Amino acid sequence: MATIMLDAGHGGADWGAEYNGRLEKDDNLNLTLAIGEILQSAGVNVLYTRTEDVYDLPIEKARIVNESNADYVVSIHRNSSPYPNQYTGVESLVYNRYSAAGEMAANINAQLEKIGFVNQGVNERKNLVILRRTRIPAVLVEVGFINTDADNYLFDTKFYETADAIARGILDTIQ
Alpha-carbon torsion 74, 174, 98, 79, what sign? Predict the structure, then answer.
């Protein structure tokens, strides 16, 4: 079975986006750990860039990934917009959408769409270190907008289903 490196975005003093006291770094870590448990129960070897509230520079995370011998890396984030409740949905970012990472991103988005998230698609971002500096297929999943009440409601009320959907998207790709 494949080895998946899970990356909980941000951490420590870098809390990512914030909305009404809700910190992206906390949502990212909680969801990442839940995804990891599901994947492990399915027989996947799971590694993490962090399992507690610490911060590593993006280049350090890329080094950890590159030294891991993992087959894929999936980085978990929450999106944010200039104004609250402006946008909704999930978006996955990859270096090249016509790649193994692009396939995994599409599978993850499709599973998240099934539980109620708006699918904003798979988009290329060449400037993100976790996508550009890793030598394995890398996907950054923006799991709803942290400053959109509807996305937070879905994230909170369907937390396990969200973790399961991401895990199923990963499994759809590696099995």
Answer: negative
